[in-house]
Amino acid sequence: GAVVSQHPSWVICKSGTSVKIECRSLDFQATTMFWYRQFPKQSLMLMATSNEGSKATYEQGVEKDKFLINHASLTLSTLTVTSAHPEDSSFYICSARVGTSGPGETQYFGPGTRLLVL
Amino acid sequence: GENVEQHPSTLSVQEGDSAVIKCTYSDSASNYFPWYKQELGKRPQLIIDIRSNVGEKKDQRIAVTLNKTAKHFSLHITETQPEDSAVYFCAGGSNYKLTFGKGTLLTVNP
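Above: the input entities. Below: the structure tokens describing the complete assembly.
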């Protein structure tokens, strides 16, 4: 149980284009999903918290107009990197939280999407 | 906000030895502390977690201890095996989100 998928697994795009990444909880409903960014040999940096049916909460320093998040259903959240530039190249990982009864419920991660912007 | 410090950044042990990774946190409201294992290019996998109402938790060769007063928690791996080699991240949680440590690269030498 608690399987999270992510699509695509990798993408190469030209500078200026937009890229959409999907995160799905396959066997459970997730009212909350999280989007992280990870640079090589570095930690997971939380970008935003995605809440089903409401606006995402972005971490300080993350441009909400650059990284559009939509959580339209209990099993799907999407991250769109708009007008991507080479500095946006990174490993993007989503996670879905199991449980709604309190803070700190277990998060399960998707396999990640490696984005390379040329 | 929460700040999680993790040490050491790299750890090399011989197969069969024990490995200990330590983390400290700053927010006394944090009440959930998971540990994740990440192999190169793969997703972080939850290996064990502990909540603030518990001081210690064990799962086979893996154990986690929590000292709320000192705001630190540790991961203990006994009888290490080469397949334990990976990057390990600690995290601390409050307000429905986690803050991760910088990670520890564990290498188990056969």
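Note for the figure: Chain A touches chain B at residues 32, 34, 42-46, 49, 93, 97, 103-112 (CB under 8 Å).
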